[in-house]
Amino acid sequence: MHDEHPESAIQAEADTGLACLVMLARFHNVAASPEQLAHEYLDNGRQFAKPELLLAAKQLDLKAKFVRSKVERLEHTPLPAIAVSQDGRFFIIARLDDGKALIHDPLVQRPEVLSFEELQARLTGELMLIPSQASLAGELSKFDFTWFIPAIVKYRKLLGEVLLVSFVLQIFALLTPLFFQVVMDKVLVHRGLTTLDVIAVGLLGIMLFESALSGET
What we know:
Elements: H1 6-14, H2 16-27, H3 34-41, H4 50-59, E1 65-68, E2 81-85, E3 90-97, E4 100-104, E5 111-115, H5 116-122, E6 123-129, H6 133-141, H7 149-154, H8 156-190, H9 193-216
Antiparallel strand pairs: 1-6, 2-3, 2-6, 3-4, 4-5
Helix pairs in contact: 1-3, 2-4, 8-9
């Protein structure tokens, strides 16, 4: 059975960007065909550059992005990642351990171990990150009440006024049944009409004040 896209197959073999993307896709358990991707995104013997890598990653439902990073910050970077070398080719930084970096260059066909100094000399500082689902879940788990602290600090005066008005309204809501209880105990039982007049005025004042506060909020 012959390859349907022989030229694409030749391109895929020599294309370091495409090879790295396919390797990371398979690492994330995503099926990827280098020949199919090369046929879809490349023509005239070109190779995968950053735009093609991002488009192909999107097609594979991988959340990829390019960032700039220094070697000393790689320990806080989700790996494996695709790195851009000084000669424009792509290679994979698989992991860091004890001041060493395990990398894979598609043209070398075997893993290599570099010191941080050697890696620094090879890097341009550009990385294509493809975080795993576990990493994405970890990012989502960081979304908690602390996200709202800056907004709370910024609008603390307004929030304080809202809370104060809400508190006063709640107090007024409690006063109404208390007044009713006084009417039952003092006015109806002891026929205290003067007390009834005072309560009526008090209720009217509360209603007016509560309406004013509700209108402000």
